[in-house]
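Reading is simple: each integer encodes one residue's backbone shape. An example follows:

___
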Amino acid sequence: MAEVHAIKDINQVTLISHLLKVRYSQQMSLVWNIGINLALRISDLLSIKFSDIQHDRVVLRESKTGKRAEIQLNPKVLALINEIRLQFPTHLYLFQSYRNQQSINSSPRPLTRRAVTKAFALVGEELNIRLGTHSMRKTRGYHLYQKTQDITRVMKMLRHGSESTTLSYIGITQEDIDRDFVELEL
């Protein structure tokens, strides 16, 4: 699997959302828009049930680490979740598979990681960028770092164990650090 990157240009973040909507579905665009705001791994994002959403927070146990994640939902995400809830009041999952609805006797399931990965990869090809499901998490981390310059804060948001892992993960390279030393004269 090829490494995917953070989307550093905010206009491209918006374009990706638009392309996912017109090329695939509103639901795929919602995965991107909510995912980029929650910074969860794709398996955790897709497994969110409406019962995991408590008032203005999503509370779950991360499948990879077993760590508890309690994430405050911003107004944009709350509005998107409420839209989904109004449109699909009987759904169990935030991103419930529509295909599964065709099988009357099967229990509800979320969208598959494979479907999201494929849609993201094809939009990435169209834009000539390495776009994948981890791009949402990396993008959130990158933009928080650019806004705050606080790697510890980003590390905590991503629930990483080390600063070096987080810097590498969000795409801050030695070249970026060198440029900061050259450009910032005190």
Q: What stands out?
A: Residues 18 and 165 are 31 Å apart (CA to CA). The mean pLDDT is 90. The longest strand covers residues 57-61. The domain at 10-133 is CATH 1.10.443.10 (hpI Integrase; Chain A).
